[in-house]
């Protein structure tokens, strides 16, 4: 197989367009399977752009299970030999990453930067609470501080004491295991509720699922949970595998049913996922969950010609009946309060003089207030009934209008209408019917 040094030299030759040198390097590479050698030689001879050649080399090596670092170098070279890096250069997180030569160790997949920026930009410069699970030596925390600004509260969590030592005096880092829901709830109680939770911890299936299940319901409305390195869902060493039942990706895709829960009777509409998950965004190795208090979705028709008649009528009826209902409700509230006050006075009078009959004057007033209340209640009921009847009448009108429109449309499309069109035009001009 290709070693890292030969790969680096090979990629350098490719970057300079020196196919001859690249071929000589491949020819001299020891321990290289002959079939693979000829595939790789074919690729460097291909005459493609350096970017495409580097990418094709990466694909070929990936296919035969070459070392991850070797494949990574090919794809990294392909990226920088192409033109996409220029877009990335405008990303503030990437700029920070590149400039961070002597700061804390920061190990990132550069394609995460646009994802972060897309979902987190709106929190910048605001007093938000950010939790990063998985601190390592604090490089990420320092980047988030710079990105979110001085008003943000940035908290880290890690299982390793070295993370807390490395960041002591600069950041709050709580020690604990992210697969322990009690630890996660403590984080929320001490430092939350969070607006942003970034899971860059141990990346096992259990850790990612428990963290999402425990922390998503506790995130602020409008906040996000961003789970990194979800490619571990495909790696058996982390409990993943293609289509694996217990993988984080499988678990996350099930949340799509929650997003659509109201559209199938067998789906649970009561869970936090069905009510507070605004959307999910799946990327290569990253999943973002938006926390959003949702209303039940509904459809509505706007436009068309109904505005000519039906909408105006129904709008007026709706406004009138709403005003009437409101008036009756207000009156009812006043009468209800009056009758409660009277009832209390009556009770007090009875307690003050045990055995004595309740005050007859008060009792009479109470009876009157009760009668008034029940009268208003029945008025409220009949107002509501009348509103429903008027709405039904509007429905009938609307249906009639729609049927007329449909007839007109059919008529306009019909052959005879088109055939007689010149005749009608002449009649219009001559004024004859
Ligand atoms: C990839 S590093 C984090 C890098 C950091 N986010 C950065 O950007 O610099 C992963 C970290 O997760 C921590 N970790 C691993 N398992 C964990 C667990 N069960 N609970 C909390 N942290 C864990 C490791 O100790 C390690 O520091």
Could you characterize what this model shows?
58% of the residues lie in helices and 9% in strands. The chain has 18 helices and seven strands. It has helices at 4-15, 19-28, 34-45, 50-63, 68-81, 85-88, 92-99, 112-120, 139-148, 161-167, 181-191, 205-215, 248-259, 272-276, 310-352, 360-413, 415-419, 421-430, and strands at 129-133, 153-158, 172-175, 196-199, 224-228, 277-283, 286-291. A seven-stranded mixed sheet has the order 3-2-1-4-5-7-6, sandwiched between helices. Strand 4 (196-199), helix 12 (205-215) and strand 5 form a beta-alpha-beta unit. Helix 1 (4-15) runs parallel beside helix 5 (68-81) and helix 4 runs antiparallel to helix 5 (68-81). It starts with a helix and ends with a helix. The chain binds S-adenosylmethionine (SAM). S-adenosylmethionine (SAM) is lined by residues 106, 132-136, 139-140, 157-160, 163, 177-179, 200-202, 207.
């Amino acid at each position: 197989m290709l070693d890292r040094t030969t790969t680096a030299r090979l990629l350098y030759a490719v970057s300079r367009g020196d196919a001859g040198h690249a071929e000589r390097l491949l020819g001299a590479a020891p321990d290289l399977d002959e079939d693979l050698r000829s595939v790789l030689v074919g690729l460097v001879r291909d005459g493609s752009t350096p970017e495409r050649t580097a990418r094709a080399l990466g694909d070929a090596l990936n296919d035969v299970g070459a070392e991850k670092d070797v494949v990574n170098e090919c794809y990294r070279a392909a990226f920088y030999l192409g033109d996409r890096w220029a877009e990335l250069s405008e990303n503030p997180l990437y700029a920070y990453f590149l400039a961070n030569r002597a700061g804390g160790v920061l190990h990132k997949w550069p394609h995460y930067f646009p994802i972060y920026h897309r979902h987190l930009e709106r929190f910048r410069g605001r007093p938000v609470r950010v939790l990063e699970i998985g601190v390592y030596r604090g490089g990420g925390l320092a980047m988030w501080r710079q990105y979110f600004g001085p008003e943000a509260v940035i908290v880290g969590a890690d299982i390793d004491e070295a993370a807390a030592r490395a960041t002591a005096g600069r950041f709050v880092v709580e020690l604990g295991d992210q697969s322990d829901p009690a630890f996660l709830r403590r984080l929320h109680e001490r430092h939350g509720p969070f607006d942003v939770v970034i899971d860059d911890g141990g990346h096992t299936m259990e850790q990612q699922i428990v963290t999402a299940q425990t922390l998503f319901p506790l995130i602020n409305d409008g906040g996000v949970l961003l789970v990194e390195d979800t490619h571990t869902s495909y790696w058996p060493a982390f409990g993943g595998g293609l289509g694996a039942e217990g993988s984080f990706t499988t678990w996350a895709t099930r949340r799509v049913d929650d997003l659509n829960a109201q559209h199938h009777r067998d789906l649970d509409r009561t869970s936090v996922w069905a009510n507070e998950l605004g959307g999910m965004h799946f990327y290569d190795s990253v999943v973002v969950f938006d926390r959003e208090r949702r209303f039940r979705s509904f459809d509505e028709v706007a436009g068309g010609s109904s505005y000519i008649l039906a909408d105006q009528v129904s709008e007026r009826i709706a406004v009138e009946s709403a005003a009437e209902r409101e008036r009756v409700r207000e009156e009812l509230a006043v009468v209800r309060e009056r009758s409660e006050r009277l009832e209390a006075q009556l009770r007090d009078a009875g307690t003050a003089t045990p055995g004595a009959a309740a005050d007859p004057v008060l009792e009479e007033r109470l009876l009157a207030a009760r009668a008034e209340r029940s009268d208003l209640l029945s008025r409220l009921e009949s107002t509501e009934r009348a509103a429903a009847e008027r709405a039904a009448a509007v429905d009938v009108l609307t249906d009639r209008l729609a049927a007329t429109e449909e007839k007109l449309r059919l008529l306009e499309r019909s052959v005879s209408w088109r055939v007689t069109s010149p005749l009608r035009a002449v009649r219009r001009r001559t004024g004859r019917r």
